[in-house]
Amino acid sequence: MPTSLSALVRETAWARYVLLESDHYFQADREQNLAYAEMRLILAKIIWSFDLELDPSSANWLADCKVFSLWKKPALNVHVKEVPRG
């Protein structure tokens, strides 16, 4: 328990700062989780709606990828055909 008014103000300001900072981190985590959920939903919709077939020119795609400080990826060619769903 603070013994003076200034100690009480310091404690309250510190608690408010901690609460705001923790809320900021949790908010960022919720937004990140929402973004991942949206990406999964979009990918699932693409896989459900289309047949994807790898182009023969991209058969060695993984072997052609190079990793230095960054990942250098060559073009990945894919044939897309819509699947009729009822």
Q: Bin the strand percentage.
A: 15-25%
Number of domains: 1
Tell me which oligomeric state these chains represent: single chain
The low-confidence runs, each spanning 5 or more residues with pLDDT under 50, are none
User: Gyration radius, to the nearest Å?
Assistant: 26 Å
- Read across the widest sheet, the strand sequence of neighbours is 1-4
Distance between the termini: 69 Å
Order of helices and strands: HEHEEE
Shape: flat
| Count, helices | 2
What's this entry about, in short?
The chain is an alpha+beta fold. The chain has helices at residues 5-49, 61-64, and strands spanning 50-54, 66-67, 71-72, 78-82.
Features:
86 residues, alpha+beta, two-stranded antiparallel sheet, two-stranded antiparallel ribbon, 2 helices, 57% helix, flat
List strands and helices in order, with pairings.
Elements lengths: L4 H45 E5 L6 H4 L1 E2 L3 E2 L5 E5 L4
Q: Can you tell me about this structure?
A:
- The longest helix has 45 residues, at 5-49.
- The protein has two helices and four strands, in the order αβαβββ.
- The chain has helices at 5-49, 61-64, and strands spanning 50-54, 66-67, 71-72, 78-82.
- The model has no long low-confidence stretch (mean pLDDT 77).
- It is flat.
